[in-house]
């Protein structure tokens, strides 16, 4: 049995000898129990059968061929569109959501069975392997040992590096924000626009932002002329990301970042929070920005808001109603939590999202997404 705090190990046999290395999975997947060494001679059908049965494939062939094999596995996992249409439609939106999450989880497990070895210093000992040292250092910190990860995770690290390098254009800032690996990218601009457009409460000399993420909302508040913004965050990657973005935007003198769960000490005339919108369990680090088990952060924000508002102050809750359309959190429950916290709704501004999935009729959750509305709820002491 693995001792608490010790790194997980993956074990396999190669050239007749037992081998092992550190296992790394950001999604928290346990190391596969069955591992087979594979190379360019392995065909996609056999690879898919082995992966579906839970046998991991430790790649020793050409790196670019491994990428092609992963694409072939994904096509086999997803199946043909005409076959998917024959399945009976889920009875309720909630059932559709759970089936969709279940399918995503199974897909992720199967595709994670194609493994890539690393040598110290983030070197991949494979033909035509890319130089991923910078991307891995950004995601993981220093790498001084051998380890094994899934190719799918590695491609995510590479993609995150590109996001970080290129940034995401934020029109209301007239600048780009650079998300780090594991930090949710502010690609849904409608909620940023809501915060930029809503009139500020009178005498807003300080504002709190709960859950800084990339730092985009703290930056918007500071750019709107609030002299002091205090933003809190618990995730170390998000704190590092927010600090970098606030510095790049030249806002270090206005924005203070604190490692704290929910609220900083004191009170403010404006407290802003954009919690995860869906009450479900995240399956990876970046999903913590989307899924909030048992609505923990939402309930924590509502429950503590009144005690952190100055007289006449406002709390701005930015929240999608997607959970309502999925049957996961009724509107009456949200309104009940607001009332129980001694708060009143002062107003609400709504906007419809414009992200691609909102208009994708092939999405399993299309009915809910097409009805989704993002709102800025203005809350005050009752």
Plain-language structure description:
This protein is 35% helix and 23% strand. With 382 residues, the chain is of the alpha/beta class. It folds into 2 domains: 154 residues, no CATH class; 215 residues, Rossmann fold. The protein has a 7-stranded mixed beta sheet, sandwiched between helices. A 6-stranded mixed beta sheet has the order 1-2-6-5-4-3. The termini are far apart. About 1% of the residues have low confidence.
Q: Indicate the radius of gyration in whole angstroms.
A: 23 Å
Which range best describes the helical content: under 10%, 10-25%, 25-40%, 40-55%, 55-70% or over 70%? Answer: 25-40%
* Spatial separation of the terminal alpha carbons: 54 Å
| Secondary-structure content class | alpha/beta
CATH class of the largest domain: Alpha Beta
The multimeric state of the shown protein is single chain
Write down the domain tally: 2
Q: Any idea what the CATH superfamily of the largest domain is called? A: Vaccinia Virus protein VP39
Q: CATH fold name of the largest domain, please?
A: Rossmann fold
The coarse overall form would be globular
CATH architecture of the largest domain: 3-Layer(aba) Sandwich
Q: What is the mean predicted local confidence, pLDDT?
A: 91
Order of helices and strands: EEEHEHHHEHEHEEHEHEHEEHEHHEHE
């Amino acid at each position: 049995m693995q001792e608490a705090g010790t790194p997980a190990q993956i074990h396999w046999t190669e050239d007749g000898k037992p081998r092992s290395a550190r296992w790394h999975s950001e999604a928290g997947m346990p190391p596969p129990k069955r591992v087979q060494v594979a190379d360019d001679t392995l065909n996609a059908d056999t690879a898919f059968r082995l992966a579906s049965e839970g046998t991991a494939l430790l790649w020793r062939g050409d790196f670019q061929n491994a990428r092609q094999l992963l694409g072939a596995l994904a096509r086999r996992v997803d199946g043909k569109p005409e076959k998917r249409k024959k399945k009976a439609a889920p009875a309720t939106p909630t059932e559709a959501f759970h089936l969709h999450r279940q399918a995503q989880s199974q897909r992720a497990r199967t595709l994670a069975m194609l493994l890539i070895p690393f040598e110290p210093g983030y070197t991949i000992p494979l033909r035509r392997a890319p130089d991923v040292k910078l991307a891995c250092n950004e995601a993981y910190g220093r790498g001084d040992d051998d380890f094994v990860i899934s190719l799918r995770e590695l491609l995510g690290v590479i993609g995150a590096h590109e996001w970080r390098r290129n940034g995401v254009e934020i029109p209301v800032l007239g600048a780009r924000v650079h998300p780090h690996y594991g930090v949710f990218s502010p690609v849904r601009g409608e909620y940023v626009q809501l915060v930029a457009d809503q009139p500020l409460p009178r005498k807003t000399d300080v504002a709190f932002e709960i859950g800084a993420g990339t730092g985009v909302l703290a930056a918007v508040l500071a750019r709107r002329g609030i002299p002091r913004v205090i933003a809190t965050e618990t995730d170390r990657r998000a704190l590092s990301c927010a600090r970098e973005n606030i510095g790049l935007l030249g806002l270090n003198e206005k924005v203070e970042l604190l490692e704290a769960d929910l609220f900083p000490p004191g009170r403010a005339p404006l407290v802003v929070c954009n919690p995860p919108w869906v009450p479900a369990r995240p399956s990876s680090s970046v999903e913590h920005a989307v899924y909030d088990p048992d609505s923990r952060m939402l309930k924590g924000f509502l429950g503590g808001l009144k005690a952190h508002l100055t007289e006449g102050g406002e709390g701005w809750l930015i929240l999608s109603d997607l959970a309502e359309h999925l049957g996961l959190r009724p509107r009456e429950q949200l309104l009940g939590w607001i009332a129980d916290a001694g708060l009143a709704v002062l107003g609400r501004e709504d906007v419809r999202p414009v992200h691609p999935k909102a208009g994708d009729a092939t999405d399993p959750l299309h009915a809910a997404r097409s009805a989704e509305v993002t709102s800025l709820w203005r809350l005050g002491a009752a």
